[in-house]
Amino acid sequence: MEKDRSVLKQTAHVAPKRYSISEVSELSGISAFTIRYYDKCGFFPGLQRGKNNVRWFSEDDIAALHLVDALRKSGLSIEGIQYYVRLSSKGDASRQERLMILEARQTVLEYQREELDESLRTLQCEYAGLKEEKEGISDSQT
Questions:
Q1: Under 8 Å CB-to-CB from 79, ≥6 apart: which residues?
Q2: 70-74, 81-85, 138-142: segment of lowest average pLDDT
Q3: Above 60 in pLDDT, residue 11?
C-alpha cells in the first residue's frame, strides 16, 4: 500500500518540536487571529493543546496551515476546506477526490492569474500612454 503524503495527514514523530501560535504566525506570515479562526473551523483536528488550552503546532500542523491558507486564497469556502480536511482523515480512500478538488482549485487560480496578467497589461499601457502625454506636454512648453 502506498503511503499517503498529504500535508493534512498527521504522522508520528519522536519528540517533535512544537511551536506556539505566535511562533507559527511569525514563521508563516499568517496572523494569529487567522490561525485561531482556522483552528475554530476545525482545520487542525490533531492539534495538541497544553495547559490553559494553549495551542501547540507541529511541523505537520504548520504544513496543513499553509495548505488551508492556499485553499482559502484560491477561493474555496470554509465549508469546502472543512470537507477537504474530513476527506484527508480518510487517507488513501479519499485520495482521488482530494486530487479532483486540488485540480479544480489550480484551474481557478490559473484562470485568475491570466485575468490579472491581462489587467496588468492594460494598466501598463494606460500608464505608458499617460506618461507619454505628460512628456509631450512638457516638451512643447519648453
A1: none
A2: 138-142
A3: no
Beta bridge partners of 56: 48
State the pLDDT at residue 8: 59
Helices (H), the chain: 21-28, 32-40, 59-73, 78-88, 95-141
**72, HSE (Cβ side, Cα atoms, 13 Å):** 16
d(CA 32, CA 52): 17
The per-residue pLDDT for 134 is 76
The three cell numbers of residue 4 are 499517503
Among candidate residues 23, 41, 45, 40, the one with its CA nearest the CA of residue 32? 23
Q: What is the largest CA-CA distance in the chain?
A: 79
